[in-house]
Amino acid sequence: MLINDFENFIIDTFTKEKLEIVKGKNEYGFTNMGIKDVSKLGYCTNLTIESAREAAKNNVDLLITHHDAWEWMSGIKEEVLEILKHSNITHFFIHLPLDDAEFGNNTSILKKLGFRVTDKFSNDEGMYCGRIGEIDEPIEFEKLVNKIEMLLEEPVRKWKNNERLIKKIGVVTGAGFSAIDIKDAVNLGCDAYFTGEKILYTVQYAQYSKMNLIVGSHTFTEIFGLESLVKMINKRYPMVEIIRIKEEHIE
Question: pLDDT, tens digit, for every residue of 134-171?
């Protein structure tokens, strides 16, 4: 797969119209251009020193992540770029468009949990960062928590604020700590709210609104949209080897 082929695939998949919404906002793009003929592709949520080294160790040609390296964390992005350049690795990240995509983070995790997507919410200038999922046979809160922990392969934080069985859930993967998003989930009739980060206000508003709250990690609630994306790439370019780059459960 040539990088030009990959660029065209991204445009076709996310559409020019959606990509235009975030143009110039550092929500997607290449951070380093290395090898232009890709035979091995790696993916993970975060571009970090550790994930760049892991990609280099596995002889990856193209690394795709959800997040770019954090520029405000002094020195990290510079060191990451040195690793990518030294190893001749091309890197591409896709942030808000992957949150919004119909195959993206929220939809993918809901499907893995056995829910069907029925609505979207958490509108960010035309991009929807959240999805509503429903299930035919309501389940107990603790059973849902167990399913999530098995899927993420990590413990989660949980606050049981009502006694209802879970039939309808609001999901904003990653940094979905906004009380506004929880309010929207309440108004949409959700029995639980699931996200990847929380702050004091998240917990307080969930308690006030009697919304069951489940909080996993930012990293591992957002890996499944990438997984869906690279499967689509592999379907179009079956000769490309796909590997998941390991990340630690540090959150």
Answer: 999 999 999 999 999 999 999 999 999 999 999 999 99
Identity (one letter) of the amino acid at 84?
L
> Please, which residues have CB within 8 angstroms of residue 238's CB and are 6 or more apart in sequence?
none
Domains for the chain: give ranges and CATH numbers. 3-95+223-244 (3.40.1390.30), 99-221 (3.40.1390.30)
The separation between CA 67 and the C-alpha centre of its own chain, rounded to angstroms, equals 9
Q: Is 222 annotated as a binding residue?
A: yes
Residue 146 near residue 124 (C-beta atoms within 8 A): no
Residues 6+ apart with CB under 8 A from 89: 32, 34, 35, 52, 55, 56, 60, 61, 62, 63, 83
Task: Indicate the SS3 state at residue 239.
Answer: coil
142 is annotated as contributing to ligand binding: no
Burial of residue 166 (CB within 10 Å: 0-12, 13-18, 19+) is buried
Which of the four pLDDT bands, split at 50, 70 and 90, describes residue 73?
confident
Cα 87–chain centre separation: 26
Q: Tell whether 66 is in a known binding site.
A: yes
Backbone angles phi, psi at 34, to 5 degrees: -115, -115
Distances (CA, A) of 160 to 1, 179, 208, 212, 213: 48, 17, 12, 5, 7
In this prediction, residue 125 carries a pLDDT of: 82
Lookup: tokens for 74: 């002094």
Q: Which two tokens stand for residue 147?
A: 């399913």
DSSP-assigned letter for residue 212: E
95 marked as part of a ligand binding site: no
